[in-house]
Design brief:
The chain is an alpha/beta fold. It has helices at 21-34, 47-54, 58-70, 91-97, 119-134, 139-142, 151-163, 179-190, 205-214, 230-240, 261-273, 295-298, 329-340, 345-356, 359-381, 406-415, 447-462; strands at 74-77, 81-84, 108-109, 173-176, 196-200, 217-221, 223-224, 227-228, 244-247, 277-281, 303-308, 320-323, 387-388, 395-399, 418-419, 421-422, 436-440. A hairpin with a 2-residue loop joins strand 7 (223-224) and strand 8 (227-228). It holds the Pfam family Aminotran_1_2. In the C-terminal section; belongs to the class-I pyridoxal-phosphate-dependent aminotransferase family. InterPro entries: Aminotransferase_I/II_large, HTH_trans_reg/aminotransferase, PyrdxlP-dep_Trfase, PyrdxlP-dep_Trfase_major, PyrdxlP-dep_Trfase_small, Tscrpt_reg_HTH_GntR, WH-like_DNA-bd_sf, WH_DNA-bd_sf.
Length: 463
């Protein structure tokens, strides 16, 4: 009989990142499998044996084995035990490291903020769709009230948000068709036409388009490597009588900055002091390996919080959550009704299934690991002094030599078959645009294509 997993020490594969222990153990089994330390056909120890070895409960090991089976790493045999799966441990690695003939003649896309779409992600969603088709519950196809979302979908979102550090009451959660839709609902509910609201001096280009659509003006506030500078916000509040702040504390687009907890507390204190309403865009936040509590957890009474899964799981999974202060529910529901009546229930049935089966977080953990590897690749290929952003974010914020503008860089990259995004798209005031481009790391599924694109970018800078 093959060796037992008890011959393998799982502790080097366990990441103490604050997640539930069963998820960490399941991922440790998966990583040991990918590393080749667990061989196909190997019998795992009993639940009691592994629980004693790792000093956890038997129930924790039961849930870990169940999760590992959902990941495709192990399978159970009734009356015999649990065994390592028989397919190659390089299956997922081959997906990333092999080329794809259909993409060979297309431009290498380093321009769009896009999660890495793996075969496993797609298969998990297909399996979930099959479960929905076979389920007797078809209420999500028939009901169109309440407008804020079906109770079971809101409950699933409430559970997931709590894992992100945001305890929210179900009455304060509104389902929306993605983060952009959530931000539109929030701002349409509180902004007056022609009003000026504050944001970071570099902000997601979708937000700039939203300002044009809703007819409000933006004033960009100074930032540093940790995000929005509290002192700059206080000066603006004192001198300009600001009423609304929109910001992205976690993995700002395009800079990739990550605001530390102390600064979030300073921003929250300023918001209270000046009676400031805050709109928090947290679409990238779940990519943080160790989450910093959202601003909304510090000042829930004055913060609109929007997130979704388009940047952390799959780009077409347009299911979002908008958490709102109590006193604005009526206004938000009115704008939701006018814009789409209610968010698409079938999408939330799919997402809620993934949450209940603990698969959504697993897909996000895979995204974290893959983006961290891609960041490491980018930082090894590009000049270190020019690379900005988080080492586990979706993109890098690349500085350019003094003689090169971002438009020059974009044009030269395009000539050589690579797409990047110039800084002007992220500037409320384009005249203040720095000499930088955003280089995204997720849209190209295959690493050789990404590496080729990054090498071209490096060659252009060095030339």
């Amino acid at each position: 009989m093959r060796n037992s997993i008890m011959d393998i020490n799982l502790r080097p594969y366990l990441r103490p990142d604050g997640r539930a222990r069963y998820l960490a153990i399941a991922e440790a089994i998966q990583n040991a499998f990918i590393a080749g330390h667990l061989q196909p056909g190997m019998r795992l120890p009993t639940h009691r044996e592994l629980a004693a070895d790792l000093r956890v409960s038997v129930q924790t090991i039961s849930r870990a084995y169940s999760q590992a089976e959902k990941l495709g790493v192990v399978h159970g045999v009734i009356g015999s035990g649990t065994y390592v799966s028989s397919y190659s441990p390089d299956q997922e690695t081959e997906f990333f490291q092999s080329g794809h003939p259909e993409t060979a003649s297309n431009p290498i896309d380093l321009s769009i903020a896009h999660p890495v779409c793996t075969k496993r992600h797609l298969q998990i969603v297909r399996d979930a769709m099959i479960r929905l088709a076979q389920s007797d519950n078809d209420q999500y196809l028939l009901k169109f009230r309440p407008v804020s979302g079906l109770a079971e979908h809101v409950a699933a979102g409430q559970h997931w948000l709590q894992g992100q550090g945001l305890p929210a009451h179900h009455d304060n959660i509104v389902l929306c068709n993605g983060t952009a839709h959530g931000l539109m609902l929030a701002l349409a509910s509180i902004v007056n036409p022609g009003e000026t609201i504050a944001c970071e001096e570099l902000v997601d280009h979708g937000f700039i388009a939203l300002a044009r659509t809703l007819n409000f003006r933006l004033t960009g506030l100074p930032i540093d490597d940790d995000g929005l500078i509290p002192e700059a916000l206080e000066v603006a509040c004192r001198e300009s009588r600001l009423r609304i702040l929109c910001c992205t504390p976690s993995l700002n687009n395009p800079t990739g900055s990550l605001m530390p907890r102390k600064r979030r507390e300073q921003i929250a204190a300023i918001a209270r002091r000046y009676d400031l309403l805050v709109v928090e865009d947290d679409v990238f936040g779940a990519l943080e390996a160790n989450r910093c509590p959202p601003l909304a957890s510090l000042i829930p009474e004055r913060t609109f919080y929007a997130t979704s899964f388009t940047k952390t799981v799959l780009p077409g999974l347009r299911a979002g959550y908008l958490v709102i202060p109590d006193c604005f529910r009526k206004q938000v529901i009115a704008h939701l009704t006018a814009s789409t009546w209610m968010a698409t229930p079938i999408t939330f049935e799919l997402v809620s299934d993934l949450i209940r089966e603990n698969l959504l977080d697993s897909m996000i953990f895979t995204q974290q690991d893959e983006l961290a590897s891609r960041q490491s690749l980018a930082r090894s290929l590009l000049p270190e002094a020019l690379v900005g952003g988080s080492p586990f974010g979706m993109h890098i914020w690349l500085a350019l030599p003094d003689e090169m503008t971002s438009q020059d860089m974009m044009a030269r990259c395009r000539e050589q078959g690579v797409l990047v995004t110039p800084c002007q798209q992220f500037c409320p005031n384009p005249r203040l645009a720095p000499r930088r481009v955003r280089v995204s790391l997720g849209a190209e599924a295959f690493r050789p294509r990404l590496q080729e694109g990054l090498q071209i970018v490096r060659n252009i800078i060095e030339a």
